[in-house]
Amino acid sequence: MVSNTLFKLPELNDLINRSLETSVMQLGYQSIEPSFELQNNLKNNLETSLQNWSSNFKTANTNCPTCPNPPGYGFRVNFGLQILVDFKIRLKANLGIGYGQRYGDFAGVGALNASIYNHGLGTPVNGKDFVVDITAATYLTVGGSNGTPLTSYTLNYNSPSPILNDFKNSFTYGQLVTWNSALNEKRFSLADLQRQGMIGFRLGDFNVSSNNDTLYYGGDAGDKGPTGNISIVTPLFEAGFQDFTGKYWDEGNDKLTNDDEWRKFNEKNDINSSNFMHRQSNFQKSLNKASTYFRFNTSNGENLTIDFIGDAWLQNGIHRAIKDFRFDYNFKDTDIWIGKSW
């Protein structure tokens, strides 16, 4: 009766029956308290059988490359912490909450990320105060087959989506809105929210995430704050580029209040268009930072990140090609972070 109603797996059913038989044999005919001894024997043998069955089940699935991955959708939460390898106390912490569902070859995800940090992109040069990023993103993924679950990023490498990409090959498009406390000098307004487009794709064990505020991505073309990111994620390591820029000049009392007038001023003074720079206040200019990074991950969530802070080679190349204004990047550094993700 019990084996037909509770234990429907044949392998587990056999183990339970063998445990019962062993318990009866161990009881023998010399027991003073049969019921007590029988209960203990049943309990001990049943626990041993369940542990053996569970261990064999996990091992069998680990060695089965065609077995489906465990469910990774529904509501998910992730958390990460990184500490700078330096004498200074510098850290980053991120929290993500998301919901996703996969229906065959389609998946939809909504995610909210918050990160707080006092060093790196998004903080002013030599700044010590904590900065906050808040990002909300929605995206759709179309793909096929199953692959090793890999991380996708929304805003940057501080904003991993709680929902992993478990397609073998796929294409992703979405939208995100974000707010940075340093860029907006700790003031919050709906008008200060930035909109960016997300484009990603996966080929085998390479999952590419990118976002940009350009109109080609469906962004707001604001060209400020976290203006672009691209990350290539594999099961063992990541690599990518990301940049952050301050706001450019918007002081109403200045005669040269917009880019068109500033462009005419530069042309009149015979300044090469490829060297046109956005005019910024000293504080906003101190936010101009770009990073080329490499991150190494372990299976238990530990990671090592190397940040090469310097010239925005990708952004500058694009802006020179389209003859658009560029930003002045003067800060260079190499940062090493150790971290843990849950």
Would you write up a description of this structure?
By secondary structure, this protein is of the alpha+beta class. It is built from six helices and twelve strands. The chain has a twelve-stranded antiparallel β-barrel with strand order 1-2-3-4-5-6-7-8-9-10-11-12. The model is unreliable at 1-8, 57-70 and 251-257 (pLDDT under 50).
Task: Give me the secondary-structure category.
Answer: alpha+beta
Low-confidence stretches: 1-8, 57-70, 251-257
Main β-sheet, spatial strand arrangement: 1-2-3-4-5-6-7-8-9-10-11-12
- The helix/strand series, from N terminus to C terminus, equals HHHEEEEEEEEEHHEEHE
Span from first to last CA? 42 Å
Number of helices: 6
Largest sheet: 12 strands, antiparallel, barrel
Shape: elongated
Strands, total number? 12
In a nutshell, what does this entry contain?
This protein has helices at residues 2-5, 10-27, 34-62, 259-268, 282-285, 313-321, and strands spanning 74-84, 91-103, 106-117, 131-150, 165-180, 194-203, 206-212, 225-233, 237-245, 289-297, 302-310, 333-341. With 342 residues, the chain is an alpha+beta fold.
